[in-house]
Amino acid sequence: MRGVVLVLSSIGCTLGIVQAKEPLSYNEHIRPILVENCFSCHGADSASRQADLRLDRREDAIEYGAIVAGDPDSTVLLDRIYSEDSEEVMPPPETKKTLSAQQKSLLTQWIKEGAEYEPHWSFIPPTRVPVPKVKKQEWVRNPIDFFILSRLEAEELLPAKEADRRTLARRLSYDLTGLPPEPSVVESFVLDPHADAYERLVDTFLSKLEWGEHRGRHWLDYARYADTHGIHFDNFREIWTYRQWVINAFNRNMPFDQFTILQLAGDLVTDHGPGATPDQILDNKIATGFNRCNMTTNEGGIIDEEYIVLYARDRTETTAQVFMGLTAGCAVCHDHKFDPLSQKEFYELSAFFNNTTQRAKDGNVYNTPPVLAVPLAQDRTRFRAIEKELPSARAALAARKKNAKGEFHTWVQSLTEDQVLAIGPQETPLLDVAFSEGEGNATKASFLGKQTTIPLSDSTSWLPGPSGMSAALLNGKAVELSSVGDFEHDQPFTISCWVKLPKEDGNKNFAIASRMDESNAHRGWDLWVEDRRVGMHLIHKWPEDALKVVAKQQLKPDVWTLVTLSYNGSGNPSGIKIYYDGVMQQKPKVANNKFKKNTTRTDTAPFVIGSRSKGSPAKNLGLTSVSIWGRALSQNEVESIAKADLLTDIVKLPKEERLQAANRLYDWWLMDFDKPFQAAKARENALVTEEAAIKKRGTIAHVMQEKPDMAKAFVLDRGEYDKRLDEVSPGTPAALSAYPDTLPKNRLGLAQWLLLQDHPLTSRVTVNRFWQEVFGTGLVRTSGDFGITGELPSNQDLLDWLAVEFRESGWDVKHLFRLFVTSAAYRQAATATPEKLVKDRDNRLLSRGPRFRMDAEMIRDTALAASGLLVQKIGGPSVKPYQPDGVWKAVAMPQSDTKKYEPSTGADLYRRSMYWFWKRSAPPTSMDILDAPSREVCTVRRDRTNTPLQALVVLNDPQFIEASRALADDALLLGGSNDDQRIDYIANRLLSRPLAEAEKPVVKKSLADLTNWYKEHLEDAQAVISVGQSQPRHEDAVTLASWTMLTNQLMNLDEVLSK
Predict the structure, then answer these.
(1) Residue 607: inside a domain, yes or no?
(2) Can you list the pairs that 692-695 forms with residues at least 24 positions away whose Cβ atoms lie under 8 Å?
(3) Does the residue 988 lie in any domain?
């Protein structure tokens, strides 16, 4: 046999062959066997392929000689699977895989029938097949039912009877709004005699704003939405506007094609349609938050390129899974082992997402660029007006700057020494020490304008100063004065001086000036230098009651610098401003922020220039012109001090030589002397201030933004960011619809390609996931994998019919859900029979109505809604309901702004669970236990479990205890005059029905037991009714506690926790 490299023993295929009434289907009967046992070594991935044999393609398998179509006896594949020789049998023993006798027989029969392959079902565009014929046509309510009933009849099963109206109302309410129905709504429906009562109830629920919340809550799983970055500090990310957009989109019934395009490429859409408003255009960009929900980091040691690759990979995998149901991540390191997706095609897909302006590091900030300001609705008109006015204001400013040069030159040439003296602060300083004599052992000083001479220490000498002046050379304490500088912490002041640090750092830390008592816990203040950086201490007791701020920029050695420090008396780090040559130092380091605003005055230590009271001396420090003012000088005033010193030199020059030296002062002159420029600048400042105030009142949106370059990517060897192979351009898998030349090679083109009429996946995958939301399991169980390893549809004809219907309806989401819930299949009772449990155990054929445990959010929201605590505000920032103390601490970095969980108060405690602040490294504890995902990655199908720990959440979590108490309170006050009525009040709110007569004795017995217990344990009763921030209303603690715990027991019923 050609291509066979091993000697194979021929054995007779004597085992019985499974006979089928019709020819075997490759997709249904054969592909699953080959996928499970063969394709990992003999499939699409060339890197892992053994013996160069491909079994996933018919022509390759036949050419190789592994299969001889129509001749099982000559087929090597069968020889190998039937072999009993451990060296020859396939799959090899080390794989721990063994084909069953039935699987071997199926393969034999298939080869005998001709070994025909079929394209994978999901890669063939769906077509609208005719609805099948059924016997029980009177059961059918819409086209869905033909497909369901046809399968049931084929299995000789009958559909269940229609559920009662209470059950239907409850089921509808949960499926369409995620909340239990109000008892009054249920009663009205039960009593409604109209033939279309059910359809009208459906429309009522579809029109509720809670519809958008419920659909949006599912979508946030797919989009991996969370309120933190996810990695390293896991800091806060302000992205809730995207969640709001999703809710609004579903409530507006936005067509799903538009919903897709805007999320993938809303920033690239230029045709917004006729009559599009600025708000709509803003919303289109907010939609791109879908691709900003990925996890990011700011860890210092990361390699930027590596994380840019990881972010593009995440977006590629998420887009592929959400819109195409493909496990694209399996092609990151090699060709996909099963699906027709090569590694090259994966990186062609990733190229669409590899062109964003987003940085690798998130900065640990809430607003990592690119972001957009999202003003409050009432501010948006004015905000847009400011956006138009600001360019005009800045143009006027630029024009004045360009045209004022002549006036500046005139001013410079006419400048006199007296005019220079008038520049800067005009009030007399508290202290002014010259240090400019150049000789002797004393210097001139001024105390509140009174001139005097003060002695200098013997260690002080002289050197040339700035601007031709002389200056002192300090080596330790130069001047000691007892009558100045004793400032209280709430007294503002400014100190300024010219300094020159030596070339060699003889001592890195020293005080230029201070009033500080080192023997009394360093009480006082100083002008400090630390590693050539200027700073300030403000101290009551070091270090536990002190403030320390240090500039980030170093002073240049051997260069004269005007150093100014101002303090506004606030006792806060922000109140300290540090200037070099009149320029404010930005974002100085806050080295100590423990100041408790106790006294900083010290009458036991003098004001000293050159050191502290005892130590920290300045050595070889040049110093001149030390001044102290009793207020915080403004930024302009500090700048003027620096400029005045420069002008002192300029004014000494001949007029014709002044201009060149003065040009660097032009910007300062404009700000301080030119009235037209000042007016233009005031206009700009007013607009900027107003814009900032609007931004502060509003929020932001994390959005996508394309670079101007052409998108591209590289195939990466084993997925390693630094092992680039071929460069690739944006592209899509060849196995799917061709990418039209008319579409742009960017995210907008990708979104439009996903929505092509012949695209085989998008409509199918979406319909399947919506089906899953209602019926519990998709028509394809593996809703995130429509590839070869995914499960076959339980009813492909129905799936394809729905996919085409969805597309041809204009991608109408509400239309699709209306079809689901108005079908007879949906309206069945959820009762099973022994026969159905055998033939349809998991209800894949829908032989009964859908019934399954609710998602985490629905369980909590049920408790809040039934108790009357739920605050049904739509949208807004995330909130923080009850969680255990310290719940974030164990997983948080010390510097993280999500280290401490501080619960909300008031109404925010009772919002729907979809608004819960979602920290990726520590999701809400009760939600986590109830199977909510972490949102670290895209999740298209949640786990569904039922564990003792979940029961403990509902029994003990403060939210559920408080809700039980609130519902019990209502029952006692509003539920009626006897226990039967009160019990039914609770049951109607939790179960949407009164209790059956057989159930009530059990409940009453529990109530009696609880009452007897709390009568003897009054403190326990008080503790129970005190849980939560809402206040109990019923005055009898024993009665309220008993009913609270009874309600809590009922809340834990499986019927309550299931829909």
Answers:
(1) yes
(2) 694/373, 694/375, 694/376, 694/379, 694/382, 694/383, 694/386, 695/373, 695/375
(3) yes
